[in-house]
Hints:
The protein is α/β, with parallel strands linked by helices.
Amino acid sequence: MADLPLRLGILASGRGSNFAAILDAIDAGRCPAEVAILVSDRPDAQALERAAAHAIPTAVVVPTDYPDREKYDLQVVERLRAAKVQLVALAGYMRIVTPAFLAAFPDRVINIHPALLPAFPGLHAQRQALEYGVKVSGCTVHFVDEGVDSGPIILQQAVEVCDDDTEESLSARILVEEHKLYPEAIRRIARGEVPLGGRPRRQEVA
């Protein structure tokens, strides 16, 4: 992108480990971006504490304060627009965004998923991989569309599935790779190597 750093809006519901990985990459100079705001749907989300420690503006938008998902999402959109966000990154955000949200940031919402999409979309991807008996799983950064984990793929990283893996052990190894892959995907978007609104080819980080 022409203007650097890229202004990020992060949506998170929990501990925010991918958010922390993005912050670490920015602080280390590996990712030409800045977090303009972190928005959470949960007032007790640990991600809010991480943001406060970095003096990053935050907002808590509680779903039960709104009559439906769309009105909730439009309130989140208002907070993101006020922060002049250019790219929205879902980082452990436990809600499915509505078409109204996607229309506000067309082709500018990304997510990370703990599987090699299109395999094992949705919840419990690591459990799905183990139940299916695959030998390789991994993680995927993708653009968000109106489907479930069905948007254009930006980057993927493979992770070997071991014979003695449990859902917890596989999840932990995939998470290590997520923390590398998500900042790298944002770096490529910020540098214009991945066009916003395009349909990038599937890639792997070596």
